Amino acid sequence: MTEQTETTVQALELKGRMMTLTVLRLLTPDVKHLGRELEQRMQQAPDFFRQLPLILDVEAVADTDLHLDLPGFVGLLRAREFLPVGIRGGDDRWRSAAEQAGIGVFTGGSEAPAARRAEPEPAATPEPETSPSTTVLQQVRSGQQVYARGGDLIILSSVSPGAEVLADGNIHIYGGLYGRALAGVRGDTGARIFCMGFNAELVTVAGTYLVNEQFDKAYLGQAVQVLRDGEELRIRPLPGVNGGR
């Protein structure tokens, strides 16, 4: 009786989902050069890159022999705690190399590939969309992480070095930003980061990031907004603050 009951109970379910993944574009077939630049990026923001899922975009090197070194390059990424999940672009040679490396193949040009739908989902009555905001009154201290799921994050104080704040929507910081701020973490490319004193370690919007060494020094300590412009991240002065227009 027990065995029969266990076999009739559904144990798992497969569903399709849109996921935002970081795309690593390979621009040279020189594996040593790729490795050196990876090391430099990791030194800039080691916590951000650790356990980061990656899609390898090989379009720019599709006509080279880099596919022969793909399994080794995937091993290099894993040794540095990246999580390569697949490639995008290339021909049958690249697909064979991806299979040998134990990763998948993504087709199409979208920056956020859709997972394969295993079965249709039943139609559901749409619920009204809400965008709740999360308000933090006190300083976010080093080692702390605050995440606003489904909406904006409003911080009425500062974000210390070593602290991390995340939001599915915008991030508003009415003090200084000295730690890391990640807006649009579920793929909202229209999300922005606003702060009154910009000295961040790292900022990202929908997976596109800048680290401290890449900032225009003219914006340090200023009231700014951070936004995506296509595939680039831009820092702009806040209108009406610090002379910004």
Care to give the gist of this entry?
The protein has 245 residues and is of the alpha/beta class.
Characteristics:
single chain, 245 residues, alpha/beta, Alpha-Beta Plaits, Pectate Lyase C-like, six-stranded mixed β-sheet, five-stranded mixed β-sheet, cell division, Probable septum site-determining protein MinC, MinC_N, septation
Describe this structure in words.
- Residues 137-235 form the Septum formation inhibitor MinC C-terminal domain.
- This is Probable septum site-determining protein MinC.
- Residues 121-135 have a biased composition (Low complexity).
- Keywords: Cell cycle, Cell division, Septation.
- Residues 108-136 are annotated as: Disordered.
- The chain is an alpha/beta fold.
- It folds into two domains: 22-105, ACT domain (Alpha-Beta Plaits), CATH 3.30.70.260; 134-237, Pectate Lyase C-like (3 Solenoid), CATH 2.160.20.70.
- The protein is built from five helices and 15 strands.
- It has helices spanning 2-8, 31-44, 46-49, 70-79, 92-101; strands at residues 22-25, 53-57, 83-88, 104-106, 134-136, 145-148, 153-155, 164-167, 171-177, 180-183, 192-198, 202-205, 208-211, 224-229, 232-237.
- It has a six-stranded mixed β-sheet, with no helix packed on it. Strands 6-8-10-12-13 form a five-stranded mixed β-sheet, with no helix packed on it. The chain has a four-stranded parallel β-sheet with strand order 1-2-3-4, with helices on one face.
- Strand 12 (202-205) and strand 13 form a beta hairpin.
- Helix 4 (70-79) packs across helix 5 (92-101).
- The longest helix is centred in the first third of the chain and has 14 residues, at 31-44.
- It is globular.
- The chain starts with a helix and ends in an 8-residue tail after the last strand.
- Mean pLDDT is 81; it is low at 109-130.
